[in-house]
Structure formats: structure tokens, C-alpha cells
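Team,

Forwarding the record for the chain on the shared tracking sheet. I've put the sequence and predicted structure together so nobody has to dig through attachments.
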Amino acid sequence: MLLKELAPQVLGVLVRRYGQFDSAEDAVQEALLAASVQWPREGIPDNPRAWLTSVASRRLIDEFRSENARRRREVDVTLGDTTPDVSDRDDTLDLLFLCAHPALSGPSQLALTLRAVGGLTTAEIAQAFLVPESTMAQRISRAKQLIRRSGRGFESPPEAERGERLRVVRQVLYLIFNEGYTASGGPALQRAELTAEAIRLARMLHKLLPDDTETKGLLALMLLTDARTKARTDRGGNLIPLDSQDRSLWNKEQITEGVSLVSASLGRGPLGPYQIQAAIAALHDEATSDAETDWAQILALYEVLERISPGPVVTLNRAVAVARAQGPLAGLAVLADLDGDARMEGNHRVEAVRAHLLERAGFRQEAQAAFARAAKLTASAPERRYLEGKALTLLEQ
């Protein structure tokens, strides 16, 4: 864990000083490997970050020296001062900003963040997003090339860009969390390594920006959501919906921390979507049962969320809240707003919500057909089994 925490800090130092992302990353990996061999035998040094930075810097300078004839420019830059940078400055935030570079596509931002800041291997990232390792390697390589061609240095973005870049950083971390919490495909409902990594990085961001209320809200949202993990599947890996979960299995420590964080964020700064979603998650987690859930308050929060951060997913979730607070027919009326929305085309969750609301309204035949359609649209095996099971049950009734 110590090496994983120090890796982005050391990489940040090298990228800031030498400006060679690829070479710096390779040098850091070599330093981490050396540490994993030497530290168990010789003990952890007094200043482990300085040790890693020193080793990685030497590796990088050796590489530049070995290519002296072909890479004279890099040699001129680096050989003037070979003293490693061992200051207390933490460059992790700048590294996160670099990974959220506006020239990169969303998938590239995700991949580069997990590679450079999260410390995951290319193979691990490829496995998480269900693509071949060669494809992910190309994606990461292209991302680095785009950053290099952009001409931007490693310095913090201008003040005018900082807010937008921070918004993208939060979004990237939340996308990583969501892919871990409900995998877009594959045999398992969730990927614990991704949710854990997203929470770790969100903690890191919160530590770097302790007064940023939206970052606090993001961390709270992750903790409050992840707290339900153990209750989401049975022993066979089959999905258990929220209203049927054994709440005694929910992680009370995470709930307590998440509630504390969201309470500390609300009213302390500009209201943002992560704070509102965290407040909604807190209402779910603090309810002793599904029947005790304050759906009227949850609906009110979704209405606020839709005003400040509108989108089809928010509308979908509001439809569920409307159905629970005002009845399934009212929820179906809200859901109709998404009919024909190209952004949700092929999204199984629209049909899944429609099926549940039709079932609650007593339209079993229509619900059965909607469950069957949703099952065909999802790439997640546990979700497909659950939806097919619901369709079969209704068919037999």
C-alpha cells in the first residue's frame, strides 16, 4: 500500500522535472520493483519517497545518457543537475490534472488515471474494461502522445481552466467507481479492485483539497454506495435489489463516515451534484428498512439535482423516486420523457425500470416483455440472470 501511495507522487516529481512522461513512468516502475526487493530485506528507509525518487531519477538519467548521441536535447536538460528532487511538494494533483487533459477522450482519461495515478498495470485496466490488453496499451500510448503534442507542460492549469479540469478529475474517479460497483459486462456484478481504487484516489484528492465541498461530496457518495456491497449479491453471485437487501450486512463504519462527510459539505460552498447524490445515498443508508425510506425527501433532492445537473440518468432515477413517492403510474409518466432519447438508446436500465414500474402497476404482461427486453440489452451476467428470472416468474403467473 505504501508503494502504491508513493508511486504517483514520485512520478509527478519526475514528469515535472524532466517532462518525459513515458520514460518517467518506466523509471518509477523500476524503482518500485527495486523497493519491493530491497525493502523487505533491508528495511523501509527513513524517507521512502526520497529513496524512490532518487532511484527513479538515476534510472532516468542513465537512460538519457545512454542515448546521448540521439537525444542530445534531453541530456542537456537533465545532466546539468543530477541531484534528485526530494522536496515535500506533492505533485499528485498536477498529475491528476494532466490525466484529465482536455485533449483526451473520456476513455483515455480513465485509462491514463488508472495507469499513472492508480498504479494499475495495462493488463489490469484492460481486464476491468473488457478490452484486449493490446487495445488498452494503444489507448494509453495515444493519450501520452496527445499530451506531448499539445505542448502543455506539467505545471498546474491556468486558474480559468482549473475548475473545469477538477470537474473532469472528479468525473473520471466517479466513472472508475461506477464501473467497479456495477460492471458494464462480464460474469461478476462488481469489481472490488476498481471501487477500492476509486475510493483511495478520492481520499487522496480530498486530502489535497480538504476545503473543496464537491470533492468531499464525491468521497461521501462513494463510501455510502460501497457500504451496501456485501448485501448486493447472494452466495451464488445473484443480484439482490436494494429493496430486498439485508441491511445488517451494510458497512456501518462507511455509512458513518459518509454521512459525516456529506453533512460537512452541505451549506459550506456551492451546491454540486455529488453532494446531492451523497445526500440521497445517506437517506437510503440511514433508513432501517425499505418501508422507512423517506422517498418524498429523496424525490425533492432529485428535483434539485435535475435543475443543476440535468441528464437522462437523473431523469431515470427521478422516475423511480416519483413512483415510490406518488405511485407507479406517475413514475411511468416521467419515464416516458426518455422515450426516443438517443443518449439512452440500448441502455437496459430504462427497460428494467419500466418493467418494475409496470409490474407495480399491475400490468404483468407488459412488465414481462419489458424485463425480457432489458435482459437482452445488458452485458452483465448477474443482471441478465436477474432480469430473465423476473420475466420467467411473470410469464408463469
